[in-house]
Amino acid sequence: MLSFESDYTTGAHPAILRRLMETNRESLPGYGSDSYCEQAKYKIREACGCPQAEVFFMTGGTQTNAVVIASMLREYEGVIAAQTGHVSIHEAGAIENTGHKVLELPQKEGRIEASVLEQYLTRFAQDENHEHMVFPGMVSLSHPTEYGTLYTKKELEQISAVCKQYRIPLYLDGARLGYGLMSRKSDMTLADIARLCDVFYIGGTKVGALCGEAVVFTAHNMPPHFLTMAKRRGALLAKGRLLGIQFDTLFTDNLYFEISRHAILMAERLKELFTEKGYRFYLQSPTNQQFVILENRKMEALQKQVAFSFWEQFDEAHTVVRFATSWSTSGEDIAELSKLL
Amino acid sequence: MLSFESDYTTGAHPAILRRLMETNRESLPGYGSDSYCEQAKYKIREACGCPQAEVFFMTGGTQTNAVVIASMLREYEGVIAAQTGHVSIHEAGAIENTGHKVLELPQKEGRIEASVLEQYLTRFAQDENHEHMVFPGMVSLSHPTEYGTLYTKKELEQISAVCKQYRIPLYLDGARLGYGLMSRKSDMTLADIARLCDVFYIGGTKVGALCGEAVVFTAHNMPPHFLTMAKRRGALLAKGRLLGIQFDTLFTDNLYFEISRHAILMAERLKELFTEKGYRFYLQSPTNQQFVILENRKMEALQKQVAFSFWEQFDEAHTVVRFATSWSTSGEDIAELSKLL
Amino acid sequence: MLSFESDYTTGAHPAILRRLMETNRESLPGYGSDSYCEQAKYKIREACGCPQAEVFFMTGGTQTNAVVIASMLREYEGVIAAQTGHVSIHEAGAIENTGHKVLELPQKEGRIEASVLEQYLTRFAQDENHEHMVFPGMVSLSHPTEYGTLYTKKELEQISAVCKQYRIPLYLDGARLGYGLMSRKSDMTLADIARLCDVFYIGGTKVGALCGEAVVFTAHNMPPHFLTMAKRRGALLAKGRLLGIQFDTLFTDNLYFEISRHAILMAERLKELFTEKGYRFYLQSPTNQQFVILENRKMEALQKQVAFSFWEQFDEAHTVVRFATSWSTSGEDIAELSKLL
Amino acid sequence: MLSFESDYTTGAHPAILRRLMETNRESLPGYGSDSYCEQAKYKIREACGCPQAEVFFMTGGTQTNAVVIASMLREYEGVIAAQTGHVSIHEAGAIENTGHKVLELPQKEGRIEASVLEQYLTRFAQDENHEHMVFPGMVSLSHPTEYGTLYTKKELEQISAVCKQYRIPLYLDGARLGYGLMSRKSDMTLADIARLCDVFYIGGTKVGALCGEAVVFTAHNMPPHFLTMAKRRGALLAKGRLLGIQFDTLFTDNLYFEISRHAILMAERLKELFTEKGYRFYLQSPTNQQFVILENRKMEALQKQVAFSFWEQFDEAHTVVRFATSWSTSGEDIAELSKLL
3-class DSSP state for residue C123? Predict the structure, then answer.
């Protein structure tokens, strides 16, 4: 069956498996202290244009968000995020599990606006009762957002400026960061992200790895004993090589960007296809997730031959569904889908 | 350099990488709902002789301990473990991070005795102030223990009986379970473990996998919404296939047991070698970890050519070190070590 | 200076201090096991018309909310509350500190509507991804709300019915419950509250006590070892008599209701006063808190002679302020205020 | 019935109730910002000879320990305490509830020795795996200990020096601090305690108050937004005056010390009495708790007329019981007990 269900339904990019094979017999120290981890960190620092960056590998997005946020917040602080943010609604309360509130802000197509953020922070500071409230201690953005949309460089600069003004670190959840960077609509490089954020993560799981996310602290601000905090939250792999080798591969010969560019290309062809056939989109996504409005009967027919994700009810007769592309999406997949539409 | 440092210093058993390759292009649903996970669970149930067993895959030992223990304890309960237990001292407080105390009992070579356990539980029940204390809510054993030693079937039966009497679930941390089962000193099968424990995990990371542990609930006692609890503790992989395929491979054609048997054989040859050469052992370990007492100067010389683990100071002039074997230890490694000793 | 700042600015109703004096020399067992606690519990059960009720005393509202909610929720659950609820915004994250999310619903004058609640619960149940979300595990209402408004019996019945349908306990934060019950707009008795809620608390601190809240479990549903859970959250007083004697006094000769009635009467006179003088109200509150819109210059002038609370900015030229009454508000206070207006 | 059960079985010292009466009608701001709290803090600073001390009031000992310890530890740290410490065994896991481990050290009559502490800290620092362990982040002592024993000034100086060397704050749980200071065996003043500890609390509940403990930070080290952290742990009273007025009274005209001296005097007479009558003591306690070994039949007979606490089984025929004195113990009580022995 044809699958556009998600960007994590197939295995890893073949180059990654190849490297795991090649290095398999090497005896390496555990817990991320091996040479592949070191090499991968070096390459990520280079790619970020941020020589002082500290890099730490984890296995998944929710885990990464929880460990990073909990380790950077003080006890009395919470994290600001969009109401539609992954940390707000789709992590089963992983942030609250660490004792911290997600302070939810209204959003537009998944994005927080700098002015809304500023207003929130100003009001908090002015509230006479704020000692009885959760202090905003971090801002967390998803880029691309959960709706596949992007912040422009200017928007991110504005948000970053507000954060600096209020001395609150800016964190960027980059579960699909590659797709954001390689989108034609993107006006940002990885170096821009590194410059504007205090900490962010480069998603591997959804961009061609078996698992793995690379957290990047850009300002000498990795919390002390971060490894211990990762360990105590169950986020430290004994065979840390599994993450090091994957990221070393992803950041060799631009593979991370090539994978992302390929998926973007496939998404653009999907988009053209749906447009040609007269389908409407729920919103204009410039990344690898496309949100299409299907007539319910069409959807049911299609489901028999193509896997995609239910997103939400549109109206009585229509449904919003998501088509996603990845490293493994091929021109044949698109051609086959074309026949079915 | 020759390495006996640990059982997690090399990659995965080649059969596992092969299967990851073969299945890589298949499009599979995420979060452990794929057919390989299903198949692996089926095979584990068979291997446990426990058709009702519920199986859940996680990525590492500390993570598994924290999620299982936290999800089975009630708020006012703690978990009983040996003072030397991994949960007590080497998980950076992962259990306490979930809000629960580790109630530490004295031990012998890593083992808790049933009589000591019973006495503890009786005293607690009789203590007039016990409403002001942490209630014992679970017993956690490591098998093999952190010292490579084993419980006999009789010992485990006794502990299990005490647990039943006090209605406290018995949990077994099987990070190295294969080595325990294939040891010549073992009088237990996997089915015995499943019969005597309420929940346990079959360690993959240290027995030939890239990562992964299989939690087995033996008595229709998997906590409701366990997946959600795993998710909120950052223990749910998007590409759950990575765990399913590995355990499916490990439980096909007895691979898990073959890997374990091989390492045990290598450990026995290590043991003979050290005995022949006149070395003393810190204790008699029947599993893949051997604790040897080295004269300090000898140790320093050896370290230049062989990797092994520091365990503890023995006396002024001697040190206890650990040699571990795994799927990748070869006869040549032993032969080479022989020359160096 | 004249004070209408809050209902917790003066000490305790004199009858309470008198009883503390009279009983001071008696030697009583600790931790709430004394005869005054027993007596107070009995009287509260009577007042609730709920012979099976289990009652537990705590010292303050935030503490009570956190202990009750955390002890009743399962690990993967959160509590539903109004966006304006005390647990949502004015407890410094006390609920999140217990690891649970506050699932915030839109509100009207502080009240949640049954239909909004039902829609939320239905959508959650239907969401295919709900295993990745926080499960709604409890509904928490404030009555009176933070805006001084009340649920009608019908509204509470509807909400209670929705909770029953979805098998979610209904909790009522009654920090100012007395004022709610004695309001002329109230069509509910304490017995109605007990009948419709699974658990609620009768606020003492804001209704004439020095400190203290009485939690009432109405359905044989006090979590086992609740005392231990209170202890571990720092909510157990050694001299439990302090709470027992106060509630025994409050529930003797209807004192709790008399105090409340008095404050309501004073609030009504306040209301008349402001109305007569042509002031506008931010909303119609039928309880002891009155929200008045003051012209900014008037407010500044008044502040020099009367204490009241800033509530929120109304517009450029006006501010919403709160006047509250309590057991200690006297006719003279009102008369004096009248002169100042 | 005659009662020596504990030091919290009667109400408050009459002077405290009197002040509560006198101030009852005054309208005061909430949450500890009133003038009585300010005054009490000033007097405590004076009594401590520590003008820079920051003082915060809480309601009970377990609450105080949990809030102070959790707010001073970093995420990856635990608190060192004696195996017999209140935080270790009699707080129902309140410290673990905050996510932190209690690192239990062996003790003698409730006391930790500086050398044992130093050895522990040295070993930790030298352990190659310590990044996988809980970091010692604080030392918590009880003074008097749970066995009524005392540290000498020299012992506390030694422990304080070890803490300074390892840059770990020293915390002293002074639930019964007054009795420690007024004991004839004490060679320390409150100023010594303030000089040697980074933070400690002056217990009120067990020394004549209705409730209340005064936390003293001695080195400009009160964690920022401590009020917010207290609030989120349910430890902030709305009517903070209740604590302020009590401590203001206790630290006026040396009342705190007078109460303590009285109880010590009564305890000495108890001691003489038991000695005269030929009873043995479990240990020599110089404070208000006396641990007597009773023949079981004698104990049962006595229990009918005197309340005391079971401590532990001594042997088949004997039991250790505790007799405690307080502000309310009178010469008549002792005389009456004398007749019964």
Answer: helix
Q: Measured between alpha carbons, how far is C289 from C294 in angstroms, rounded to an integer?
A: 15
Supply the pLDDT for residue A1: 85
Report whether pLDDT(B1) > 90: no
Three-state DSSP string of D242-264:
HHHHHHHHHCCCCHHHHHHHHHH
Residues 6+ apart with CB under 8 A from B284: B149
pLDDT in tens, B131-142: 999 999 999 999
Q: What are B275's two structure tokens?
A: 């005995």
Nearest residue, CB atoms, C228 vs list B131, B227, B231: B131
Tokens of A274: 């749906």
Say whether residue A11 is in contact with chain B using an 8 A CB cutoff: yes
Which residues of chain C have a CB within 8 Å of the CB of B99? 99
CB of B20 within 8 Å of a chain C CB? The answer is: no
Contact B61/A at CB under 8 A: yes
Q: Please judge whether D131 and A231 are an interchain contact, meaning their C-beta atoms are less than 8 angstroms apart.
A: yes
Non-local (6+) Cβ contacts of A181 within 8 A are: A188, A189, A190, A193, A257, A260
pLDDT 10s digit of each residue in chain A, 341 long? 899 999 999 999 999 999 999 999 999 999 999 999 999 999 999 999 999 999 999 999 999 999 999 999 999 999 999 999 999 999 999 999 999 999 999 999 999 999 999 999 999 999 989 999 999 999 999 999 999 999 999 999 999 999 999 999 999 999 999 999 999 999 999 999 999 999 999 999 999 999 999 999 999 999 999 999 999 999 999 999 999 999 999 999 999 999 999 999 999 999 999 999 999 999 999 999 999 999 999 999 999 999 999 998 999 999 999 999 999 999 999 999 999 98
Count the Cβ atoms, other than its own, within 10 Å of residue D161. Answer: 14
Are A107 and A84 in contact by the 8 Å Cβ rule? The answer is yes
Nearest-CB residue to D228 (from A71, A135, A232): A135
Amino acid present at C231: K
Which tens digit of pLDDT belongs to each residue from D157-203? 999 999 999 999 999 999 999 999 999 999 999 999 999 999 999 99
Which chains have 3 or more CB–CB distances shorter than 8 Å to chain C?
A: A, B, D
Could you read off the pLDDT of B191-250 as tens digits, one per residue?
999 999 999 999 999 999 999 999 999 999 999 999 999 999 999 999 999 999 999 999
Nearest CA-CA partner of D46 in D187, D156, D160, D194: D194
Pair D319, D294: CB distance under 8 Å = yes
- Contact B234/A233 with Cβ under 8 angstroms? yes
Determine contact: D101 vs chain B, CB below 8 A: yes
Unique residue bearing structure tokens 């130093």: D118
Flag residues of chain D having pLDDT under 70. none
The beta strand positions in chain A, using DSSP E, are 2-3, 54-58, 77-82, 102-105, 135-142, 170-174, 199-203, 213-217, 280-281, 289-295, 306-307, 309-315, 318-324
The CB density around residue A305, as the number of other CB atoms within 10 Å, is 12
Q: Which one-letter amino acid corresponds to residue D196?
A: L
Per residue in D230-241, pLDDT tens? 999 999 999 999
Answer yes or no: do B211 and A238 touch at CB < 8 A.
Answer: yes
Residues A170, A197 contacting (CB under 8 angstroms): yes
C144 cis-preceded (ω within 30 degrees of 0): yes
ipTM of the complex model: 0.97
Q: Report how far residue B208's alpha carbon sits from residue B329's, in angstroms, rounded to the nearest whole number.
A: 11
User: How many alpha carbons lie under 13 Å from residue D245 in its C-beta half-sphere?
Assistant: 24
**Phi, psi of C148, deg, nearest 5:** 80, 0
How many other β-carbons are positioned within 10 Å of the β-carbon of residue C253?
Answer: 10
DSSP state letters, D97-112: HTT--EEEE--BTTBP
